Amino acid sequence: EVQLVESGGGLVQPGGSLRLSCTASGFTFSSYSMYWVRQAPGEGLEWVSGITRAGITITTFADSVRGRFSVSRYNAKNTLYVEMNSLQPEDTAVYYCAAGSGAEYDFWGQGTQVTVSS
Fold this sequence. Notes:
This protein is mainly β. It has no helices and eleven strands.
């Protein structure tokens, strides 16, 4: 079966850092662009970052995180990463990993909670 499993979330103080991981199985990981999407309490989904499929490797970021977050992938391990630095309370959200091969997201993970608080 297709699975995307996020890990690495937790409680961090403002200014701190976290690394999230997403491990994929059940599909050809290297053929898909990968994305991070988040949902803050009481709000809708917000696209955070993306990285193109293997062989292209272009990264993109939302204005709210550009310069603070970085995204990478290790295709041999079917794993996607996001490094989050200088975290702010506004970054508090459930972070989801998603895979896409066209105009839509095809697969989603279950999400991992990130809480930024003093």
